[in-house]
Amino acid sequence: MKKRLFLVCPDAHLEPVIPGHFSGEAFFLTALGVAFNPMETSYDLFIDHFIEDNGISEICLVADTSSRFFRNVVQGKKGFDTYAEKVLEQLLSKHSTQFEQTRGAWQKCLLLTRLHLAQQLQQLEKSRYLGRRIEQGKLVIKAYQYLRNTDRMEEIKHSQELYAPYSRVLQGAEALYGQTAAAATILTPLRSAPENTAVPPAAIPSASLAAEDFQTSPDAPQRSLPSPLTKIRAYLIPGLALSALIAAVLISATTGGLLMKELLVSTSIIAMLLAIRQIKPDRS
Known about the structure:
Blueprint: E1 3-8, E2 25-30, H1 41-54, E3 58-64, H2 68-74, H3 83-94, H4 96-100, H5 105-126, H6 128-135, E4 140-147, E5 152-156, H7 163-177, H8 182-186, H9 228-254, H10 258-279
Parallel strand pairs: 1-2, 1-3, 3-4
Antiparallel strand pairs: 4-5
Helix pairs in contact: 2-3, 9-10
């Protein structure tokens, strides 16, 4: 029976999910954001001993694309200053051009997941003890991104095999389906996707990420802010109307002039009507 060690994020709760996608015996090692540090000798040695003691022949990195770690970094939200967040932020900065050319938060989450897993694969290969096992053919390492809303595991290759195919598939999708197809194309495994192919937009995932976090449509109606002149008029006219009404009451109490009373009362009424018209909400 094949034994695998799965490196996962504890926040993703993938332990009950993974047995449905992989046969054999499963072991789990967790790190926030699937950000392991195999380049650290003590960490590398610990995993090496664990593999030796349990007869493990394969290491699988698995990241949930809807993880809040990837989502928060993509959206620029302040986190908890963890090692995982620092690693992801460095990736975002290092590949800023790619992220600028990628439309939508969902697509950026997928891209960040791929880059992160590819980097983790490279670090495992370069580590002292695990790297030696890999070179000797005693250990296989793989990486997968998990698409929760479709319950799919998609294998991720090394970074040098990632960038060019990603760009070609993305460009082909936009040519066929327009801007909204970009998310769907990323669901097509890059190792098997021919150039200039795309998945129909109906396959675009949406359930696993909060809708309010990913409203990126350029066609959404926008309400313009009021100009400074509009704000001044909104407060000035009601103020004048109130002043006229107070003056009418004061003068009528101290003088007996009927004409003056009628004039001031009429003026205040007109001013109040103008004020009501001014502050009426715009329904357009």
